[in-house]
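Structure tokens please, single chain.
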Amino acid sequence: VVSVFFAVIAVGFTLVFGVMGVLNLAHGELYMVGAYVVWLAYAQGGVPFPAAVALAVAVVAGLGLAMERGLFRPMRDRPLMGLIMSVGMIFILQVFVATTWHVGLMKQVMPYIPGSMEIFGVSLAYQRLLVVPAAACALGALWFFLRRTRMGRALRAKAQDPEAAALQGISMNRVDVIAMAIGAGLAGFAGAFMSPIMRVDPYMGHSALVIALLVTIVGGLGSIEGALIAAFIFGFMINFLTVIFDSTMANIAAVLLMFIVLAVRPRGIMGRA
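Here you go.
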């Protein structure tokens, strides 16, 4: 469960960086917004959970499009400014959510599928198990889009060589719009499905951003395949160490693993020159 959660967050982050060349540090806040949309629609509004998830993906993808058009596109030739502006978006989204829905009260979303089952003596909630096929479907759809569609191949072309892609007649603006919408939508998707599993609060995006950064760096900047591999490595390691020791030790080990991988492979597992 943890591994596929890491994978969905990190793949969206990696896709945006690989195609647009932008480290969107507000990626965690997009995840947070997705969780809040489900809380509002499903927990408060009575909207069916699948519809609430679809709404969360649409809202967060729309927010991502607004960020691409208003923040990143004007700063395309100044990536450092785009990075700084994404930091500003972190505070804007946090303050907006905190003041609108009260920062002192964490929100709880009831599970869509209540109950649990035991596997080898370990109790697993059905809601947690639901995350696995949902994430697999999302990542499978992304793989099909990138490998089998014309626009997906255009995204890959720009990620590999922007100048050559432009000479082929590929619209840079259109490709960036699609990449940002998908990346943001994946963050919203992850937040939507994780909202019944963890408490929802305005600062939950911090942990998601750290996960995205660790997985992206270890997997190799801009490599979706590397991000998937790193996500499963981190997921299994953190799960194992949390059971044996505690979450603090697991987090320390995750950072140490990043340093070890970078010492051996400075560009990450599947990073390109």
